[in-house]
Design a protein that fits this description.
The chain has one helix and four strands. The chain is mostly beta strands and about 60 residues long. Strands 1-2 form a two-stranded antiparallel sheet. Strands 3-4 form a two-stranded antiparallel sheet.
């Protein structure tokens, strides 16, 4: 399950496969207190990439 609260928009969902993963990891520098964020986005099975123009997309 996932929940994203982005200002006025909230997104809630549940999928058996990962659609979006949001990871926050500690910085490799010891004692820095910094963190890094990594976002992974995967497309649904059976979807295809769109062509860059409407004419090519048809």
């Amino acid at each position: 399950m996932y929940f994203y609260n982005v200002g006025d928009i909230q997104i809630v969902g549940a999928l058996p496969k990962i659609l979006v993963r949001n990871e926050q990891t500690a910085s490799p520098k010891i004692g820095s207190g910094e963190s890094k964020r990594k976002v992974t986005i995967r497309q649904f099975d059976g979807t295809r990439l769109r062509d860059p123009t409407p004419e090519q997309d048809e």
